[in-house]
Amino acid sequence: MATSSPQSTEAAVRLFAIPGELRSFESFDRGHIHDTFLSTWAQDGVTTRYLHQRLNQNVFQDIPGLMRNIERVTGHLERKLRDTGEQDF
């Protein structure tokens, strides 16, 4: 599905508010629908890895709607955790 260069994809990953220094960025070829990438960041001696996906617009044609749904679900889970202190849901 790759529609952009690895350099432009890496540049997009750098726009996330991830603390630290980007140490590596590579394709993570395990998915079937989306393009997936793994980034490794270092900050204060701690290394953290993040998984990023470029959503396939041929499969999910309403990306803004999909993102709104994700925000609604995660917001609901956050409120439930805050209001009940429950962690297993």
Structure description:
The longest helix is centred in the C-terminal third of the chain and has 22 residues, at 63-84. A hairpin with a 2-residue loop joins β2 and β3 (46-54). The chain has a three-stranded antiparallel sheet with strand order 1-2-3, covered by helices on one side. Helices cover 34% and strands 28% of the residues. It is of the alpha+beta class and 89 residues long.
Quick structural overview:
The protein is an alpha+beta fold and about 90 residues long.
Key phrases:
single chain, alpha+beta
Give the percentage of residues in beta strands.
Answer: 25-35%
Q: Which segments are poorly predicted (pLDDT under 50) over 5 or more consecutive residues?
A: none
- Label the overall shape: flat
Question: What strand line-up does the widest sheet have?
Answer: 1-2-3
Order of helices and strands: HEEEH
Distance between the termini: 34 Å
Largest sheet: 3 strands, antiparallel
State the total count of DSSP E strands: 3
Rounded to the nearest angstrom, the radius of gyration is 16 Å
Helical fraction equals 25-40%
Query: What would the average pLDDT be, to the nearest integer?
Result: 88
Coarse structural class: alpha+beta
How many helical stretches? 2
